[in-house]
Protein backbone atom coordinates (compact mmCIF):
# COMPACT_ATOMS: atom_id res chain seq x y z
CA UNK A 1 0.00 0.00 0.00
CA UNK A 2 1.44 3.32 -0.97
CA UNK A 3 -1.44 5.40 -2.23
CA UNK A 4 -2.61 8.46 -0.35
CA UNK A 5 -6.27 7.52 -0.81
CA UNK A 6 -5.63 4.07 0.71
CA UNK A 7 -4.00 5.57 3.81
CA UNK A 8 -6.79 8.13 4.18
CA UNK A 9 -9.32 5.29 4.01
CA UNK A 10 -7.42 3.38 6.73
CA UNK A 11 -7.40 6.49 8.93
CA UNK A 12 -11.10 7.07 8.38
CA UNK A 13 -11.71 3.48 9.56
CA UNK A 14 -9.46 3.94 12.62
CA UNK A 15 -8.04 7.42 13.29
CA UNK A 16 -5.47 6.28 15.87
CA UNK A 17 -1.91 6.01 14.56
CA UNK A 18 0.31 3.92 16.79
CA UNK A 19 3.49 5.74 17.79
CA UNK A 20 6.11 2.98 18.08
CA UNK A 21 9.02 4.09 20.26
CA UNK A 22 10.68 0.78 21.27
CA UNK A 23 10.82 -2.88 20.28
CA UNK A 24 8.25 -3.82 22.94
CA UNK A 25 5.67 -1.65 21.16
CA UNK A 26 5.93 -3.79 18.02
CA UNK A 27 4.43 -6.85 19.74
CA UNK A 28 1.74 -4.71 21.40
CA UNK A 29 0.77 -3.19 18.06
CA UNK A 30 -0.13 -6.61 16.68
CA UNK A 31 -3.30 -6.80 18.77
CA UNK A 32 -4.40 -3.23 17.94
CA UNK A 33 -7.05 -2.49 15.33
CA UNK A 34 -5.07 0.41 13.89
CA UNK A 35 -3.19 -0.45 10.72
CA UNK A 36 -1.09 2.71 10.50
CA UNK A 37 2.07 3.15 12.56
CA UNK A 38 4.73 5.81 12.94
CA UNK A 39 8.15 4.39 13.86
CA UNK A 40 9.74 6.90 16.23
CA UNK A 41 13.01 5.15 17.06
CA UNK A 42 15.68 2.85 15.72
CA UNK A 43 19.08 3.14 14.21
CA UNK A 44 20.60 2.62 10.83
CA UNK A 45 21.38 -1.04 11.58
CA UNK A 46 17.89 -2.10 12.70
CA UNK A 47 15.37 0.14 10.94
CA UNK A 48 14.90 -2.42 8.15
CA UNK A 49 14.05 -5.14 10.70
CA UNK A 50 11.64 -2.89 12.58
CA UNK A 51 9.79 -1.96 9.41
CA UNK A 52 9.70 -5.59 8.21
CA UNK A 53 8.21 -6.84 11.47
CA UNK A 54 5.44 -4.25 11.24
CA UNK A 55 4.84 -4.88 7.52
CA UNK A 56 4.59 -8.63 8.23
CA UNK A 57 1.68 -7.74 10.58
CA UNK A 58 -0.08 -5.93 7.75
CA UNK A 59 0.68 -2.43 9.04
CA UNK A 60 1.21 0.65 6.90
CA UNK A 61 4.53 2.01 8.14
CA UNK A 62 5.81 5.57 8.25
CA UNK A 63 9.29 6.20 9.67
CA UNK A 64 10.24 9.45 11.35
CA UNK A 65 13.72 9.73 9.87
CA UNK A 66 14.56 12.59 12.23
CA UNK A 67 14.41 10.10 15.12
CA UNK A 68 16.48 7.28 13.62
CA UNK A 69 19.95 7.24 15.12
CA UNK A 70 22.71 7.44 12.52
CA UNK A 71 20.62 9.28 9.93
CA UNK A 72 21.49 12.79 8.80
CA UNK A 73 19.40 15.29 6.89
CA UNK A 74 20.98 14.26 3.58
CA UNK A 75 19.05 12.86 0.63
CA UNK A 76 21.04 9.63 0.95
CA UNK A 77 18.80 8.73 3.91
CA UNK A 78 15.82 8.57 1.56
CA UNK A 79 17.79 6.47 -0.92
CA UNK A 80 18.76 4.13 1.93
CA UNK A 81 15.13 3.81 3.07
CA UNK A 82 13.96 3.10 -0.48
CA UNK A 83 16.62 0.47 -1.16
CA UNK A 84 16.73 -1.23 2.26
CA UNK A 85 13.24 -1.09 3.79
CA UNK A 86 9.60 -1.65 2.93
CA UNK A 87 8.61 1.73 4.38
CA UNK A 88 5.40 3.25 3.02
CA UNK A 89 6.04 6.79 4.16
CA UNK A 90 8.44 9.26 5.70
CA UNK A 91 7.81 11.63 8.61
CA UNK A 92 10.15 14.59 9.11
CA UNK A 93 10.25 18.21 10.18
CA UNK A 94 12.67 18.94 7.34
CA UNK A 95 11.11 20.20 4.11
CA UNK A 96 14.01 19.17 1.84
CA UNK A 97 14.01 15.64 3.26
CA UNK A 98 10.29 15.33 2.56
CA UNK A 99 10.63 16.72 -0.94
CA UNK A 100 13.26 14.05 -1.67
CA UNK A 101 11.04 11.38 -0.12
CA UNK A 102 8.07 12.42 -2.24
CA UNK A 103 10.22 12.35 -5.39
CA UNK A 104 11.30 8.80 -4.42
CA UNK A 105 7.66 7.70 -4.25
CA UNK A 106 7.07 7.76 -0.49
CA UNK A 107 4.00 9.20 1.18
CA UNK A 108 5.08 12.13 3.34
CA UNK A 109 4.12 13.66 6.67
CA UNK A 110 5.48 17.10 7.52
CA UNK A 111 5.82 17.39 11.27
CA UNK A 112 5.49 20.87 12.73
CA UNK A 113 6.36 21.72 16.31
CA UNK A 114 4.05 24.60 17.16
CA UNK A 115 5.81 26.46 19.94
CA UNK A 116 4.46 29.94 19.23
CA UNK A 117 2.69 32.02 16.58
CA UNK A 118 5.90 32.36 14.58
CA UNK A 119 6.30 28.60 14.23
CA UNK A 120 2.63 28.33 13.28
CA UNK A 121 3.01 31.01 10.57
CA UNK A 122 5.92 29.07 9.02
CA UNK A 123 3.68 26.12 8.06
CA UNK A 124 2.65 27.57 4.69
CA UNK A 125 6.17 28.31 3.50
CA UNK A 126 7.47 24.93 4.65
CA UNK A 127 4.57 23.05 3.01
CA UNK A 128 5.27 24.86 -0.22
CA UNK A 129 8.81 23.49 -0.11
CA UNK A 130 7.98 19.95 1.05
CA UNK A 131 4.74 19.33 -0.86
CA UNK A 132 3.95 16.82 1.94
CA UNK A 133 0.81 14.70 1.82
CA UNK A 134 -0.07 15.23 5.51
CA UNK A 135 0.43 17.93 8.12
CA UNK A 136 1.39 16.70 11.59
CA UNK A 137 0.96 19.31 14.32
CA UNK A 138 2.61 18.82 17.68
CA UNK A 139 1.39 19.33 20.25
CA UNK A 140 -2.00 18.30 18.94
CA UNK A 141 -3.97 20.92 20.82
CA UNK A 142 -7.51 21.52 19.60
CA UNK A 143 -7.02 25.20 18.79
CA UNK A 144 -3.90 24.49 16.70
CA UNK A 145 -5.78 21.78 14.79
CA UNK A 146 -8.70 24.19 14.17
CA UNK A 147 -6.40 26.94 12.87
CA UNK A 148 -4.55 24.51 10.64
CA UNK A 149 -7.79 23.06 9.25
CA UNK A 150 -9.09 26.56 8.45
CA UNK A 151 -5.94 27.51 6.57
CA UNK A 152 -4.80 24.34 4.78
CA UNK A 153 -6.49 21.62 2.76
CA UNK A 154 -4.06 18.78 3.51
CA UNK A 155 -5.12 16.10 6.01
CA UNK A 156 -4.02 16.88 9.57
CA UNK A 157 -2.57 14.48 12.12
CA UNK A 158 -2.46 15.67 15.73
CA UNK A 159 0.30 14.31 17.97
CA UNK A 160 2.21 15.16 21.09
CA UNK A 161 0.42 15.14 24.44
CA UNK A 162 -2.47 13.13 22.97
CA UNK A 163 -2.96 11.00 26.04
CA UNK A 164 -6.65 10.38 26.67
CA UNK A 165 -10.00 9.82 24.98
CA UNK A 166 -11.18 13.42 25.40
CA UNK A 167 -8.11 14.82 23.63
CA UNK A 168 -8.52 12.30 20.82
CA UNK A 169 -12.20 13.17 20.33
CA UNK A 170 -11.55 16.92 20.57
CA UNK A 171 -8.72 16.73 18.00
CA UNK A 172 -10.89 14.78 15.57
CA UNK A 173 -13.82 17.17 16.04
CA UNK A 174 -11.45 20.09 15.43
CA UNK A 175 -10.58 18.69 12.01
CA UNK A 176 -7.75 16.19 12.39
CA UNK A 177 -8.09 13.10 10.21
CA UNK A 178 -6.12 11.15 12.83
CA UNK A 179 -4.03 11.35 15.97
CA UNK A 180 -0.70 9.71 16.69
CA UNK A 181 0.12 8.61 20.22
CA UNK A 182 2.75 6.54 21.97
CA UNK A 183 0.33 6.09 24.89
CA UNK A 184 -0.87 2.49 24.91
CA UNK A 185 -4.14 3.50 26.62
CA UNK A 186 -5.02 5.56 23.54
CA UNK A 187 -4.19 2.79 21.07
CA UNK A 188 -7.40 0.84 21.69
CA UNK A 189 -9.86 3.74 21.72
Present the secondary structure layout.
Layout: H1 4-13, E1 16-20, H2 23-30, E2 36-39, H3 47-56, E3 60-64, H4 76-84, E4 89-92, H5 95-103, E5 107-113, H6 117-121, H7 123-130, E6 134-138, H8 142-151, E7 156-159, H9 165-174, E8 178-181, H10 184-187
Parallel strand pairs: 1-2, 1-8, 2-3, 3-4, 4-5, 5-6, 6-7, 7-8
Estimate what percentage of residues fall within beta strands.
15-25%
- Strands ordered across the widest β-sheet: 1-2-3-4-5-6-7-8
Structural class: alpha/beta
Count of all domains: 1
CATH H-tier superfamily: Aldolase class I
Number of helices: 10
- Envelope shape: globular
| Helix share, percent | 40-55%
**Separation of termini?**
24 Å
Q: Rg, please?
A: 15 Å
| The CATH architecture | Alpha-Beta Barrel
Low-confidence stretches: none
Under CATH, the topology can be stated as TIM Barrel
Number of E-type strands:
8
Give me some keywords for this one.
single chain, 189 residues, alpha/beta, TIM Barrel, 8-stranded parallel barrel, globular
Report on the architecture of this protein.
The mean pLDDT is 94. This protein has an eight-stranded parallel beta barrel with strand order 1-2-3-4-5-6-7-8, surrounded by seven helices. It has a single domain (4-187), classed as Aldolase class I (TIM Barrel). It contains ten helices and eight strands. 44% of the residues lie in helices and 20% in strands. Helix 5 packs parallel to helix 7 and helix 8 (142-151) packs parallel to helix 9. The protein is an alpha/beta fold. The chain has helices at 4-13, 23-30, 47-56, 76-84, 95-103, 117-121, 123-130, 142-151, 165-174, 184-187; strands spanning 16-20, 36-39, 60-64, 89-92, 107-113, 134-138, 156-159, 178-181. Helix 8 links the parallel strand 6 and strand 7.
Amino acid sequence: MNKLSDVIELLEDNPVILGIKEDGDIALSKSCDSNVVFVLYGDISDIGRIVKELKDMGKTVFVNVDMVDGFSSKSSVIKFMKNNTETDGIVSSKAAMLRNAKEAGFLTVHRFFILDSSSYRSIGKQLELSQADFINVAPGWTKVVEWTKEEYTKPIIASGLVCDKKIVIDSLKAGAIAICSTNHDVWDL
